[in-house]
C-alpha cells in the first residue's frame, strides 16, 4: 500500500533500496569466503531448569566475525543468506560443528547437554540437508546425534509447503526433539500446535518483556503455560533479564528459562567450562 514514505522524493527511496541491495549482495558474496576463513563461530546460550537452576540444554547461535567489517549480527545476515539461498549451507555447518563438539565430549567422557540448532524454512527445500540429518539419526543413532534438537519458528513453518513439512516429522520420528521457536509472535500459533507435534515450546521474548508491565500479557502467559502442559509440551521462556520476570515464570510453572538473567550466548570453550564446573 502507499504510505507517505513512498511519496517522498524518488532519490530517497532509491537510495534506501540500493543500501539494502548492496549489503545483501556483499553478505552473500563474502559468505563462502567467511566459512573458509573460519569467520563463523558457534556460540552457545545455556537454557536453565527453573526448579534446579542447573543448565538443562543450550541453543546454538551463529556469530560472524568478519575479517574487515568486524561483528555482523545474525539479525542482519540471516535474512540476507535466506534471500541469497545460502542459509542451508550455514545451517549444515552449524549442525556439523555441534555434532563435532558433542562427539568430542562423549569420547572424553565429559558432561554434556542437548543442543538445539535453528532451522530456516529454506532448509526444507534442500532435501539433501535434512535427509543427511535423518540418515545420521537412523544409522546407529549415535549418542551425540540424539542430543541434537531443532528449532523452527511458526512463521517459518507457515512458509513451508505441506509436502516438505513431512521432513520435520521424520526428524522427530527418528528421535530428534523439535522446538517451536518464537511462540506467539506469528499469525498461526494455535494452528501450529494443532497440526504438528512439538516437544518444547519457546515463548517469544515479546511476552516475557511485558511481565510486570502488562496484566493482559501475564494472563496470556499463564494460559500458554497451562495449555502447553495439557498437551504434554514443556516450555522455555526466551529473553528473561530481570528477577521479576524470572519469579513470575517460576511461580507460574514455566519449565525452563533462556535469558541474560542467567547467561548470554558465549563461545564454546566458555560454555564447556560451565558444564565442567557442574553448573
Ligand atoms: P532465536 O532463535 O529466537 O534466538 C534467540 C535470540 O534471542 C538470540 O539472538 C539471543 O541472543 C537472544 N536473546 C537471548 N536471551 C536474551 C535476553 O535476555 N535479552 C535479549 N534482548 N535477547 C536475548 P541472536 O543470537 O541475535 O539471533 C537472532 C536470530 O537469528 C535467532 O533468533 C534465529 O532466528 C536466527 N539465528 C541465529 N543463529 C542461527 C543459525 O545458525 N541458523 C539460522 N537459520 N538462524 C539462526
Ligand atoms: Mg531459536
Ligand atoms: Mg526464539
Ligand atoms: Mg527469534
UniProtKB/TrEMBL annotation:
Q: Which GO terms describe its biological process?
A: phosphorelay signal transduction system
Keyword Cell division in annotation:
no
List GO molecular-function terms, semicolon-separated. Answer: cyclic-guanylate-specific phosphodiesterase activity
Domain called EAL: residue spans: 24-279
Is Phosphoprotein there in the keyword field? Answer: yes
* Domain of life the protein comes from: Bacteria
Q: Which UniProt keywords apply?
A: Phosphoprotein
The job of this chain, per UniProt, is described as:
May play the central regulatory role in sporulation. It may be an element of the effector pathway responsible for the activation of sporulation genes in response to nutritional stress. Spo0A may act in concert with spo0H (a sigma factor) to control the expression of some genes that are critical to the sporulation process.
- Its protein name is Stage 0 sporulation protein A homolog
Question: From the entire protein, which fragment is shown?
Answer: 277 to 555 of 555
Amino acid at each position: 500500500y502507499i504510505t507517505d514514505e513512498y511519496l517522498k522524493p524518488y532519490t530517497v527511496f532509491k537510495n534506501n533500496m540500493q543500501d539494502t541491495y548492496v549489503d545483501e549482495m556483499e553478505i552473500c558474496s563474502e559468505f563462502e569466503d567467511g566459512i573458509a576463513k573460519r569467520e563463523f563461530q558457534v556460540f552457545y546460550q545455556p537454557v536453565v531448569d527453573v526448579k534446579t537452576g542447573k543448565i538443562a540444554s543450550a541453543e546454538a547461535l551463529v556469530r560472524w566475525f568478519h575479517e574487515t567489517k568486524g561483528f555482523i549480527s545474525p539479525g542482519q545476515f540471516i535474512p540476507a543468506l535466506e534471500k541469497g539461498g545460502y542459509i542451508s549451507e550455514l545451517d549444515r555447518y552449524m549442525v556439523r560443528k555441534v555434532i563435532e563438539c558433542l562427539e568430542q565430549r562423549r569420547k572424553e567422557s565429559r558432561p554434556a547437554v542437548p543442543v538445539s540448532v535453528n532451522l530456516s524454512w529454506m532448509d526444507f527445500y534442500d532435501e539433501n540437508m535434512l535427509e543427511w540429518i535423518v540418515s545420521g539419526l537412523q544409522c546407529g543413532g549415535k549418542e551425540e546425534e540424539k542430543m541434537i534438537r531443532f528449532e523452527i519458528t511458526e512463521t517459518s513453518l507457515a512458509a513451508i509447503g505441506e509436502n516438505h513439512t513431512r521432513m520435520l516429522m521424520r526428524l522427530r520420528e527418528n528421535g530428534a526433539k523439535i522446538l517451536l521457536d518464537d511462540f506467539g509472535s506469528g499469525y498461526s500459533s494455535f494452528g501450529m500446535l494443532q497440526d504438528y507435534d512439538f516437544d518444547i515450546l519457546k515463548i517469544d521474548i515479546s511476552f516475557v518483556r511485558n511481565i510486570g508491565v502488562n496484566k493482559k500479557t501475564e494472563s496470556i502467559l499463564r494460559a500458554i503455560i497451562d495449555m502447553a502442559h495439557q498437551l504434554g509440551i514443556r516450555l522455555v521462556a526466551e529473553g528473561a533479564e530481570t528477577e521479576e520476570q524470572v519469579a513470575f515464570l517460576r511461580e507460574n510453572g514455566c519449565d525452563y528459562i533462556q535469558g541474560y538473567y542467567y547467561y548470554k550466548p558465549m563461545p564454546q570453550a566458555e560454555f564447556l567450562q560451565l558444564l565442567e564446573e557442574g553448573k
